[in-house]
Amino acid sequence: MSQATTSLQRTGTAVARQGLSSWSLRGRPGPVGCRTLTNASHRLNAMRLYTTSTLAAQDKTNVNQAPASLATATTTDDHANDTAQQEKQEARVSEIKDAKLIFNQAFKNVQDVHGRANMRFPKEIIWLMGAPGSGKGTHTPALLKSRGITNPSISMSSLLSTPECKELINRGLMVSDGKVVENLLHALLDCEPEVGVLVDGFPRSEVQVECLKLLHEKMHELRKEFKQTPLRNYFSRPTFRICVLYVDEEISVQRQLMRGKLIKEHNAQVMRSGKGEIQEERVTDFDELLIRARYQIFKDHYSCLLRLSKFFPFHLINAVGGVDSVMRTILKEFEYQSSLELEHDTYEAISHIPLASKIGIHARQDLIRRLEHYCEAEPELFGRAVAFIDQEVIPVVARHAISGQALVRTDNAILRDPKMAEVVLSILSERGYAVMMDERVHETPKRVDPETWEIILERQHVFALSVRFPQSQIQPLEQKF
Question: What pTM was computed for the model?
Answer without folding.
Answer: 0.59
